[in-house]
Amino acid sequence: MLISDLLAPVEQLDQNLGYLRSRGHDVVILRTLDPAEVDFGFDQATMFQDLETGREIYVDPQTVAAEYKQRFDDHETAIKATCDHLGIDFFQIKTDQPLETALFNLLQARAHQGKSFKRATQTRSGT
């Protein structure tokens, strides 16, 4: 199970997820997003800081909101297409939702598909 915001280039995700699938892994993605990333409900100009690089960016939401939403939606569509193509189960949750509800829904959806999570077994040599 991969738990991530998946805010990475889709080509890179396709390559890495494809590798896992080619090795026979049953891959499940739980995409976690802050509601602000999805809704982009900002109404005042704001300084944003990239938590990975520390870079600060001045953003006027009235200027960028439509483009942001379009690019965000296009990225999500591409991720879903990659998952469909590779046979990967895709689930999404916002961080303001209870994690246990998301996990319950994920398990229930997989049960309806006839899939389950298998516990990894560990073998010891010489026993």
List the helices and strands and how they pair.
Blueprint lengths: L1 E3 L5 H13 L5 E6 L1 H5 L6 E4 L6 E4 L1 H26 L2 E6 L4 H14 L15
Parallel strand pairs: 1-2, 2-5
Antiparallel strand pairs: 3-4
Structure at a glance:
With 127 residues, the protein is an alpha/beta fold. It is 46% helix and 18% strand.
Radius of gyration: 18 Å
Profile the largest sheet: 3 strands, parallel
What structural class should be given to the helix and strand makeup?
A: alpha/beta
- Strand order across the largest sheet: 1-2-5
The residue fraction in helices comes out at 40-55%
Describe this structure in words.
This protein has one domain. Strand 1 (2-4), helix 1 and strand 2 (28-33) form a beta-alpha-beta unit. The longest helix is centred in the middle third of the chain and has 26 residues, at 61-86. By secondary structure, it is of the alpha/beta class. It has helices spanning 10-22, 35-39, 61-86, 99-112, and strands at 2-4, 28-33, 46-49, 56-59, 89-94. Residues 119-127 have low confidence and may be disordered. The chain contains 4 helices and 5 strands; from the N terminus they run βαβαββαβα.
